[in-house]
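Obj.: predict assembly geometry.
Materials: sequence records (below).
Method: joint structure prediction, all chains together.
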Amino acid sequence: MTDTLTVMTPMQTRRYHHGDLRAALLTRAEETLREKGPAALSLRELARDLDVSHAAPSRHFKDKQALLDALALTGFDRLAETLAASQEDVGETFAERLGAIARAYVDFATANAELLDLMYAKKHDPTASEALVAASQRWGEQLVELIAEGQHRGEVRQGPMERVGLPLFATLHGFASLAVSDMLPAEALEHGLDDVIAHMLRGCAPE
Amino acid sequence: MTDTLTVMTPMQTRRYHHGDLRAALLTRAEETLREKGPAALSLRELARDLDVSHAAPSRHFKDKQALLDALALTGFDRLAETLAASQEDVGETFAERLGAIARAYVDFATANAELLDLMYAKKHDPTASEALVAASQRWGEQLVELIAEGQHRGEVRQGPMERVGLPLFATLHGFASLAVSDMLPAEALEHGLDDVIAHMLRGCAPE
DNA sequence: ACAGCATTGTTGGCGGCGTCTACATTCGGG
DNA sequence: CCCGAATGTAGACGCCGCCAACAATGCTGT
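Observations (raw structure tokens):
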């Protein structure tokens, strides 16, 4: 994501057209979000950072909420990648795979706390909301795959997968969400996840 | 300009001092939050609603965040009451009691969605944050009591209570949080909670 | 090649917001 | 009963999101 476009010639730093302002806005917005928190995110300051007039962002996002929605979407995309990657160098047992995905989710959550807040914020445009629900369910499906495999191996109780999956989804999201909002003592964060994983495994073990 | 004082119509209840502006601010703020969402919450509009000058709120809350923090605190108080009440007319088995508290929590969450968002928002003043963490742990303790009782009855696995409780806390909070952010289809909301409760029970059943 | 149009960026302005300071009124304890 | 503390008011400042009018650029069909 280097700005190969914006810095074509070393001399020429300023052009009328930015090249890819939309992407630049999203990138910079996420940095600001991470570094200074959601309250410090303003379209005008973003524009200043990118050396662009204060109204330029409106060409790419119809309002501030639209930018936040887009940011949340990229968050879900990166989350899905992260979770997929977590399944690559890991054993075959359901316990191992669930553990891996759980750790990956919590790691992502703590490493992207403010972004996660945004992803699940109850504030989205109704239209963008559809896309976001779809995105969140995309990672739900990664859980579902895992469960299907576990059921096939006889390591997970039978039943419709969304009924087995929802409690896992909720538990994982809940723990991550608590961790993110600093509601857990540091010690609970470290060793707590192990207990949570064990709890999930018991919860969906075959009867 | 002082005729409001000297020539006051009998019904005119307008006084220089409001009486209990602080409480009125909190009450009205929660209404606005519920009815028009967090984005529509502004100190100035709040002041207008209550017929006071735009700077009056600053006498009671040093800034907007302070008001939000206070609002979150009252939320935790009401939540604790609600959960306590849920244990009153319910059977003695751990399953019944956990079910009752879970339903009460989810009911509170859906009935106070925006407030719950605020309560767990990662945005608080460091100083107020202490109070909030304490408040959130107060309801954690209600869970802990329940677990202790369940262990005593032999219906819950042994072990340090925070280690048994954390997964329950996380699951419950996660489900409520998902419900609140509209990430669950309506059907999952209704029947999903039963599955989640069953999952929790299996997760902390004696070995 | 180039005219015409859509895209993208700029400038200026509007009203609302949060916060600060200076001032006014009221309350309550010596 | 008076004086300081609490509480409310009035005005100003700078920032914000958003809008409308205008300017530069890119692209496409002929």
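Conclusions so far: Residues 16-18, 21, 52-56, 59-60 of chain B lie near DNA strand D (CB under 10 Å from a C1').
To do: check interface contacts against the pulldown list.
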